[in-house]
Write a structure and sequence with these properties.
about 60% helix, mainly alpha
């Protein structure tokens, strides 16, 4: 597990997996449609689900679209 800017690649993967899980819970089987419906760049959102690094403002925008708080997003899975 290599460190990158104070976080691990595994942690970014967990965030991407969590995005995917929540998107599907919202009824979106396709990430592109979710991104389009929520005014998020489709290609960029696809990278987020694959574990790409993202800014805090982007994280908040996605969580707002998913209607979930930071607290609830980072639940027991991130301890």
């Amino acid at each position: 597990m290599s460190k990158n800017k104070g976080f691990t690649e595994q942690e970014l993967q967990k965030i991407g997996e969590r995005f995917r899980e929540l998107r599907k819970e919202k009824g979106y089987s396709n990430y592109e449609l979710f991104a389009f419906d929520n005014d998020i760049a489709r290609a960029q959102y696809g990278r987020y689900e694959k574990g790409s690094d993202l800014k805090i403002s982007s994280l908040i925008k996605v969580l707002t679209a998913l209607d979930i708080s930071l607290y609830d997003f980072f639940d027991e899975r991130f301890k």
